[in-house]
Amino acid sequence: MKKLVLAAALTAAASTAFAGSLEEPIVEAPVVVEETQGSSAGIILPLILLVIVAAAVA
Fold first, then answer.
1. Among 4, 22, 48, 53, which is most exposed with the fewest C-beta within 10 angstroms?
2. How far is Cα 51 from Cα 45, in angstroms, rounded to an integer?
C-alpha cells in the first residue's frame, strides 16, 4: 500500500513538473541607442565636395 501511495505521489509531482510547453522562449531584442553627433559633423562632407568642384572649375 505504501508503494502505491509513493508511486501516486511521484507521478503527481512529475506531471506538474513538465506542465509547460516546448515552445521557444520569447527573447526581446536589446535596445540600441545611437549617439548623436554635433551639428557641424553633417556639413564637413558637402564643404569638401564644394572645394573639390571649385578647384576643378578653376
1. 22
2. 10
